[in-house]
Amino acid sequence: MEKRIVIIDGNSLMNRAYYAMQRPMMTREGVYTQGIYGFLNMLNKIMNDYEPGYIAVAWDRKTPTFRHKEYDAYKAGRRKMPPELAMEFPLIKDILDAMKIRQMELDGFEADDIIGTVAKRSEREGLDPLIITGDKDALQLASDKIKVMVTKRGISEFDLYDKDKMLERYHLTPEQFIDLKGLMGDQSDNIPGIPGIGEKTGIKLLEEFGSVAELIANTEKISAVKLREKVEDNADLAVMSRRLATIITDVPVEYETDELKVQEPDVDRLVDLYQKLELNSFLKKLSADTGSAVEADDPSDYARRVLSVSELKEIDLNGKEVFLHVFGNGDHVNDPVVTGIALLDGKDYYYIKIADGAEFAEAAAALAKARVTISGHSLSQDLYMLMKGGYEDPKPGFDTEIAAYLLDPSKSGYELKVLVLEEFRIEIRTDKEFSKEAAQTDLLGENDKLFEERGFEILRFSSLLKAPMEKKLADFGMTDLMKNVEMKVVPVLASMEVEGMSVDKSMLSETGEQLDVRIKELEQGIYDATGEVFNINSPKQLGDVLFGKLGLPSGKKTKSGYSTSADILEKVKDEHPSVAMVLEYRTLTKLRSTYVDGLVPLIGKDGKIHCHFQQTVAATGRLSCTEPNLQNIPVRQELGRTLRKAFVAEEGRTFLGADYSQIELRLMAHLSGDPALIEAFNNGEDIHRKTASRVFGIDYDKVTKLDRSRAKAVNFGIIYGMSGFGLAQDIHVSRKEAEQYIADYFEKHKDVKAYMDGQVEHAKETGYSETILGRRRYIPEIRSGNFMVRQLGERLAMNSPIQGSAADIIKIAMVRVYEEIRKRGLRSRLILQIHDELIIDTFDEEKEEIRELLKTCMEDAMQLKVKLLCDMGEAKNWYDLK
Questions:
Q1: What pLDDT does 559 receive?
Q2: Is the peptide bond before 628 cis (omega within 30 degrees of 0)?
Q3: Which residues of 80-91 are buried (b: 16+ CB within 10 A; e: fewer)?
Q4: pTM
Q5: Are 187 and 198 in contact (CB under 8 A)?
Q6: C-alpha angle 335/339/344, rounded to 5°?
Q7: N or C terminus: which one in the chain shows less Cβ crowding within 10 Å?
Q8: For 101-120, how does the pLDDT look when each residue is reduced to its tens digit (9 = 90+)?
Q9: Half-sphere exposure for 843 (CA within 13 Å, toward CB)
Q10: Would you call 149 helix, strand, or coil by DSSP?
Q11: What is the DSSP letter of 324?
Q12: Which three-class secondary structure state does DSSP give residue 729?
């Protein structure tokens, strides 16, 4: 609305935004951004919901105001601003400058006074002011035209007040709200008011007397003796408190109303700031001013043609690198439906319209025959569709999504739009935006041209991004990691997705029935133990029963009820038999919905589940798995493990699996160079028994099962930087005893201690950790001023090189297995990777050769100071593969 002016209380919103975030947000340089993130989200919502024609942001200054001069204790005792938040204020001001939003602040006055002045002046000038604040003081400014939005519970919920709403809520006019502050004071600002008078009493007095002045002039009319004495004894305090609470509406802030008009932002500057602060979600939303953008090159330099599949066969692509994108649905349940292929060969761009599966198979065969090297953005789906179309062994070149991931693995996503905006200041569409546009134009029969243009957009910028990305990878020492590990993994994952795993639906149903029986038993057990039938899935009802009726110790009750989160229930598990049953009930109902009901729709027409593997999600370099997540099937409970029985080898085949033995401990031995660990591994000793012997001072032959179990916890606790408190909880000993175990371990393994300390120091100096192959993980937490966050950063610095190196090794092993199988012309196929384990669906006649191949490829994946060993297994279903 052209006449609406939004006036924002900057300090209030920044504080709300900062404290609303559950977890800190930091850049890899250690700059906190959660306040900025929340503030910008609120600002975007305001701009979208209210479409103001004018906008201003008011800020407090650190200099004393007239209120401090009148009352020394004004705002005394207020919580000091944490340094993590303080560092964000100049940054949000820079962003608002780039947005061309007028900011105001004035020595001697608060932001409230500036807000009041601008609001009243705007009202007189015929504008419709909307004040955004988290401070109820501003309610005194409400009028028929001035509206005050008071944020609450972070930044997503708010109350909106005008004069009528004030009368409804407080039974007072906005002017009387100042009198209310004079009577009840304001704890957050340390305004005293009259001791003993709260909101309820204050409102009642003002309903009777109208104002503080009238109340003081007519104290004899106060019927309650004690209340009358309070007012008479503290009349001066009430008058002063009212004066302190009064917002000044005529401060000498200089501005022209036209300066507050909403303007187009300085996009180049905003891109720089968002990049620096790693605010990728805002980068994605940013609309670039293409008129002033830096041109990457001239699109007219490209020759563009639309080809038929037969014409594609005539193009000379032999041995060339082409940038490629396949348009289609990439369906993992049914065969993908492909509608077109976009190709870029240097400056020659081709779009091949695909009519049906037969045409796609022809096109895939033509590309396979030419032995092209395929580059692009997010190639895994392109290669998956090509391989479903019959392209046996595509050769990957360069993937801009994977390159962006290696350069910064902590981002939430790597959309091409963001990469292009960062590098070239040019705006292109997201996949979601294009899909929406394509759906609209499909009704008009204009899709062919749209897809041809979209393909050109994707491939042109993918090819232009390659050179600067290659340079950055080289500067970071990750060229080899990109070329010989990550890119070689792409076709391996596509092949695994194509192969899938066969599923026995009857076994899945049987497991579901077993789960149902146990869930019913637990349900009845919970009702019997609590003496009440209720909805176990309702956190409110469950909380009322456990913590209300049964009186179990709990956290503080909130408006929404008691918390029944897993960590709360774990703490009271031994207090009542129902709690353990509730925890098991939750686990099994989730198993039922996710891995029984959820798996059936994902079974393809070939009777297999084709899950999707992702390379660009985990910051450590590990692969992730979705639709479904087979890496996450709970196996500690028997009913969870039973689900694996449904995944079966086909007739005439066997599952062969190999799982690295204690790879993270072996990597710790290698990276630290600890001679005792290296010797123990290379001599084939039981590392946990050996640790128990050395750390607990027990003869190797006399180590008990409990000793070994505790030593195992110590070994893995050291890798993950576990504290004495964490270890104590894990192995059920006192904190002092656990801390002594850790101290004794480091005394016996000084090289491990030196290595761990060195990794922490390296991360503090550089801001990141590195794996054996140079994979970086940025750890901004390690430079935090917050002790708990800094401790988390130190644990990540200790563990990431180990976990990341393990991820590097399993990827190398995958590539070797995949390539060796194809080199030998075998029919068996790699179908699954679960962290440190590989599974091959093996034709029985190839079983012995595959067994030897799998073991060799995994154990020779990397030469370390200790031997890499893997445990082998075979079975007809996944459950029996141990």
A1: 66
A2: yes
A3: eeeebbeebbeb
A4: 0.82
A5: no
A6: 115
A7: C
A8: 999 999 888 899 999 999 99
A9: 8
A10: strand
A11: E
A12: helix
Cα–Cα nearest to 101, from 136, 66, 29, 52 = 52
Q: Is the pLDDT of residue 292 over 60?
A: no
Q: Please provide residue 284's backbone torsions phi and psi, each rounded to the nearest 5 degrees.
A: -65, -35
Nearest to 379 by CA among 487, 536, 256: 487
CA distance 483 to 556: 54
Rounded CA-CA distance 227/239 in Å is 17
Please name which of 794, 706, 789 lies closest in space to residue 756, comparing C-alpha atoms: 794
* DSSP conformation class of 662: S
8-state DSSP, 611:
-
How many CB atoms are closer than 10 A to CB 706? 10
The token duo for 671 is 């990276």
Contacts of 729 (CB under 8 A, 6+ apart): none
Q: Are 871 and 659 in contact (CB under 8 A)?
A: yes
Q: Are 377 and 484 in contact (CB under 8 A)?
A: no
Strands 147-152 and 157-161: antiparallel
Write out the DSSP string of 9-43.
EHHHHHHHHHHH-SS--B-TTS-B-HHHHHHHHHH
Which tokens hold the place of 112? Answer: 């409230």
H helices present in 286-399, as ranges = 309-312, 357-370, 379-388
How crowded is the C-beta side of 438, counted as CA atoms within 13 Å? 19
Alpha carbon of 484 to those of 29, 454, 634, 808, 811: distances in Å? Answer: 29, 30, 33, 11, 10
Q: What is the pLDDT of residue 523?
A: 94
> CB neighbours of 744 closer than 8 A, spacing ≥ 6?
695, 696
Weakest mean pLDDT among 242-251, 374-383, 460-469, 672-681: 242-251
Query: Tokens in use for 432?
Result: 């979601």
Q: What angle do CA 860, 862, 863 make, to 5 degrees?
A: 90
Beta bridge pairs of residue 558: 561
Contacts of 208 (CB under 8 A, 6+ apart): 221
d(CA 512, CA 338): 36
Cα Rg, the chain, nearest whole Å: 33
Tokens of 815: 């590539």
Rounded to whole angstroms, how far apart are CA atoms 469 and 751? Answer: 37
Q: Report the alpha-carbon distance of residue 416 to residue 434 in Å, rounded.
A: 12
Residue 555, amino acid: G
Residues pairing with 327 in the sheet: 340
Residue 255 in tokens:
């501005």
Encode pLDDT of 665-689 as tens digits.
999 999 999 999 999 999 998 888 8
How far is it, in rounded angstroms, from Cα 503 to Cα 514? Answer: 18
Cβ proximity of 854 and 872 under 8 Å:
yes
Tokens of 160: 């909106």
CB 627 within 8 A of CB 381: no
Q: Give the HSE-up count for residue 590: Cα atoms under 13 Å, Cβ half-sphere.
A: 11
For residue 629, how many other CB atoms are within 10 A of its CB?
14
Q: Which residue has the tokens 């001072």?
A: 697
Q: Which helix H or strand E contains 326, and what residues bound it? A: strand 321-328
Say if residues 142 and 162 touch (Cβ distance below 8 Å).
yes
Q: Residue 289 pLDDT more than 50?
A: no
Task: Please answer whether residues 587 and 594 qualify as being in contact, where contact means their C-beta atoms are separated by less than 8 angstroms.
Answer: no
Burial (Cβ within 10 Å: 0-12, 13-18, ≥19) of residue 643? buried
Cα separation of 30 and 706, whole Å? 42
> What angle do helix axes 505-530 and 577-592 make, rounded to 10 degrees?
160
Q: How far is CA 514 from the centre of its chain?
A: 35
For the chain, how far is it from start to end, CA to CA, in angstroms? 67
Domains of the chain with CATH codes:
4-167+248-260 (3.40.50.1010), 289-497 (3.30.420.10), 502-609+618-648 (1.20.1060.10)
